[in-house]
């Protein structure tokens, strides 16, 4: 089976495996992290067809024919995505949750360029951070929106 990941067609040998393992083990895209495996933590979050998706609960075959975007696909060459720049300015601790937060924030800003604090809270709230970095995460999402509106 073929998948389109970060704009590239990739051959996948195990389409029945969960997407998180296909991305990490078959395609070498280890930016997508594995945490709980039950859809609770959000560290495995990727975008499938632009939708926030738990890769630990989604068979790779379910992404066939749709664009998969992982954290490796956010930057444009040397140019960071606004959410990457904003999280650099608001660093977290261990960073295990970070790819999931980046992907959720990127999806939020694609559909809501000027999110309210409540919208940020709702979107960011689907991802856990075991280090408790929630204030920095909310600040980073708000900053990313500002950067994106400014054309970064
Ligand atoms: S590893 Fe998928 S939600 Fe936790
Ligand atoms: S920074 Fe450690 S889990 Fe979020």
What labels describe this entry?
152 residues, five-stranded mixed β-sheet, 5 strands, single chain, 36% helix, alpha+beta, binds FE2/S2 (inorganic) cluster
Q: Give the DSSP E fraction (strand runs of 2 or more residues).
A: 5-15%
Main sheet?
5 strands, mixed
Question: How are strands sequenced across the largest beta sheet?
Answer: 2-1-5-3-4
In whole angstroms, the N-to-C terminal distance is: 36 Å
Morphology: globular
Category from helices, strands and their pairing: alpha+beta
What ranges have pLDDT less than 50 throughout 5 or more consecutive residues?
none
The oligomeric state of the chains shown is single chain
Bound heterogens, unique: FE2/S2 (inorganic) cluster
Number of helices: 5
Radius of gyration over C-alpha positions, nearest whole angstrom: 15 Å
Assign a percent range to the helix content: 25-40%
Which H/E pattern describes the elements?
EEHEEEHHHH
Number of strands: 5
């Amino acid at each position: 089976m073929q998948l389109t990941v970060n704009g590239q067609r990739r051959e996948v040998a195990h389409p029945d495996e969960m997407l998180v393992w296909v991305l990490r083990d078959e395609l070498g895209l280890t930016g997508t992290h594995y945490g709980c495996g039950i859809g609770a933590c959000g560290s495995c979050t990727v975008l499938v067809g632009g939708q926030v998706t738990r890769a630990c609960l989604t068979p790779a075959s379910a992404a066939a024919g749709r664009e998969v975007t992982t954290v490796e696909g956010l930057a444009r060459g040397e140019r960071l995505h606004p959410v990457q720049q904003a999280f650099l300015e608001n660093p977290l601790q261990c960073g295990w949750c970070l790819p999931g937060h980046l992907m959720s924030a990127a999806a939020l800003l694609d559909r809501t360029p000027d999110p309210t604090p409540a919208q940020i809270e709702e979107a960011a709230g689907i991802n856990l951070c075991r280090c408790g970095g929630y204030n920095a995460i909310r600040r980073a999402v708000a900053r990313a929106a500002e950067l994106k509106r400014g054309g970064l």
